[in-house]
Design a protein that fits this description.
Elements (H helix, E strand, L loop, with lengths): L2 H18 L12 H12 L7 H6 L2 E3 L6 E12 L5 E11 L3 E3 L3 H10 L2 E2 L1 H16 L3 E10 H4 L10 E6 L6 H11 L1
Parallel strand pairs: 2-5
Antiparallel strand pairs: 1-4, 2-3, 3-6, 6-7
Helix pairs in contact: 1-2, 4-5
The structure holds zinc ion (ZN).
């Protein structure tokens, strides 16, 4: 679907939502809301139209470097697929190259593409790890995600500030020593 069609269809639906919850959609403050929310939703789910593998493949370089490369505290914002409410926090990504490195800015870019889809934190973690493994073929990848989930904080159990941590590792990071090096580095 074209973006303009998408916005139109979403706006129509959000207009119904406003109606159904008992609001007056003709109220001044709400007049432009359906279209505004529609545009926001298109932006927040723009990861569907993007190819994370292409991002990695566009910036690979042959290098001798053999130690761990760690990019930590990468901010992200996503939406849980169960409630379509935000979850957000930080991602830490490490890899040990095997002849090739990737342009560092591509790692946050890949995270952003996967985050801008309806997600669960567990799958987001694995998708980031797999994307690096499959396109960079390093000796190992480690990904840790720490996030707060508004579906937990605003509704249901209302556990304020609870942090969920997920982790996925491959290759050399399955060795205790390397995993410890990663965990110590991210704190
Ligand atoms: Zn949720």
């Amino acid at each position: 679907m074209q973006v303009t069609e998408q916005i139109k269809a979403l706006a129509d639906n959000y207009s119904s939502v406003i109606d159904i919850i008992g609001e007056d959609k003709s109220r001044e403050g709400l007049l432009a809301t359906p279209e505004r929310v529609a545009k926001s939703m298109v932006f927040l789910t723009s990861g569907y139209g993007m190819d994370p593998a292409a991002v990695i493949n566009s910036a690979k370089f042959k290098e001798e470097y053999k130690d761990m490369v760690l990019v930590k505290d990468i901010e992200f914002y996503s939406m849980c697929e169960h409630h379509i409410l935000p979850f957000f926090g930080k991602v830490h990504v490490a890899y040990v190259p095997d002849g090739e490195i990737v342009g560092l800015s591509k790692i946050p870019r890949v995270i952003d593409i996967f985050a801008k889809r309806l997600q669960v934190q567990e799958r987001l973690t694995v998708e980031i790890r797999k994307c690096l493994d499959e396109n960079l073929h390093p000796k190992g990848v480690a990904v840790a995600v720490e996030a707060q989930h508004l579906c937990m904080q605003m509704r249901g159990v209302q556990k304020q500030g609870a942090l969920t941590r997920t982790m996925d590792v491959s290759g050399i990071f399955k060795q205790k020593e390397k995993l410890e090096e990663f965990l110590n580095a991210i704190g």
